[in-house]
Structures are given as structure tokens and as C-alpha cells.
């Protein structure tokens, strides 16, 4: 990675692999995307009551998404309410990066800890999970070093308006 940074080719490497921003810009569209991925890759599982972009997730070093659940007694049964919140920065990213973070949060619905079984489930949902996670880290490193203005300038100059934000 350091070689890509030093030779000023990190941005071009990322753009060559991930050139387009996804179209899931509303919470409703994100909910549909998450439910489609969940239904196509996870049998059964807990229902999800809310999915949203969260502007309060600011520290990208701490979390890119969160999953929460609240258990409550309703009648004689215990019911769980699950929510997935995705960092607002994913609103303007390539779809594979969104898929990686959604995959991660969906896996937490079944497995709470980051262990071998958790990552096996991630790979079941998205076979390229580990590569996408690595490339996302490259992208976030690029943004941290060069900032948004540099990303925008690079996108306009080198790709005629197509690309990542």
C-alpha cells in the first residue's frame, strides 16, 4: 500500500476497480437493498425492523456500521427487534463497498463475535468479502491522506465525471 501512496497511484488503482457510485441514496432504498441481500443469502434469520444511513457514525476507525437488537416480552413471548445502521459515508460509495459493510452487519444478526464462523458466513454472503474489505480500507486511507477535494479533482480530471466520491 505504501508503494501505491508514494507513487501517487493509489487513487487510480481504486478507480480502476470501483468506478461507479451506487444508487441507494435513501433509507428506504437501503432497506430494500439489505432485505434483498438477506433474503437471497440467509435462510430464516431474525427479521430486521429498521435499516438506515446514520450521520452519527463519524469515527471510521471505530465503526462503519452498527447492528442493534432490543429484546422485549410481548404477551408470553420474547421478541427481538433488530436494526442496522450504516455510516453516512456509504451513501456516496461504490456498490461493492456498500455490499461489504451490509454483509458484515447481516452476519452479526447470526454471529455476534468476530470469529472464524463469522467470517465464513461473510464469505458465504459475499464471496469477495475479504478483498472488498481490503480495498475499502485502501479507499478510506486514500480519502484520509488526500481529502475529499483531491478525490473530486482527480475524479473530474481523470474520468470525465465518472467515478467514486
What does this structure look like?
The chain is of the alpha+beta class and 165 residues long. Helices cover 52% and strands 17% of the residues. It has a single domain, classed as Zincin-like (2-Layer Sandwich). A 3-stranded mixed sheet has the order 1-3-2. The longest helix has 31 residues. The radius of gyration is 17 Å and the shape is elongated.
The N- and C-terminal alpha carbons lie at a distance of: 20 Å
Count of spatially separate domains: 1
> How many beta-strand segments?
3
Mean pLDDT metric: 81
Strand order within the widest beta sheet: 1-3-2
In DSSP terms (H or I, runs of 4 or more residues), the helix count works out at 6
CATH fold assignment: Zincin-like
CATH architectural group: 2-Layer Sandwich
CATH class: Alpha Beta
Percent helix: 40-55%
User: Which descriptor suits the 3D outline?
Assistant: elongated
Task: Catalogue the unreliable spans.
Answer: 157-165
Element order: H for helix, E for strand: HHHEEEHHH
Instruction: Report strand %.
Output: 15-25%
Class derived from helix and strand content: alpha+beta
CATH superfamily: Metalloproteases ("zincins"), catalytic domain
**Radius of gyration, rounded?**
17 Å
Major sheet details: 3 strands, mixed
Amino acid at each position: 500500500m505504501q508503494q501505491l501512496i508514494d507513487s501517487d497511484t493509489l487513487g487510480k488503482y481504486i478507480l480502476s476497480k470501483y468506478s461507479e457510485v451506487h444508487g441507494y441514496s435513501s433509507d428506504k432504498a437501503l432497506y430494500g437493498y439489505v432485505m434483498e441481500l438477506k433474503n437471497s443469502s440467509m435462510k430464516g434469520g431474525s427479521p430486521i425492523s429498521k435499516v438506515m444511513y446514520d450521520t452519527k457514525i463519524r469515527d471510521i476507525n471505530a465503526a462503519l456500521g452498527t447492528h442493534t437488537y432490543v429484546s422485549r416480552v410481548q404477551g408470553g413471548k420474547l421478541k427481538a427487534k433488530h436494526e442496522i445502521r450504516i455510516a453516512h459515508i456509504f451513501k456516496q460509495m461504490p456498490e461493492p463497498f456498500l455490499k461489504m459493510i451490509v454483509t458484515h452487519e447481516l452476519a452479526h444478526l447470526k454471529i455476534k463475535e468476530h470469529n472464524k464462523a463469522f467470517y465464513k458466513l461473510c464469505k458465504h454472503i459475499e464471496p469477495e468479502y475479504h478483498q472488498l474489505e481490503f480495498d475499502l480500507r485502501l479507499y478510506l486511507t486514500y480519502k484520509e491522506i488526500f481529502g475529499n477535494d483531491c478525490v473530486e479533482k482527480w475524479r473530474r480530471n481523470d474520468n470525465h465525471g465518472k467515478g467514486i466520491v
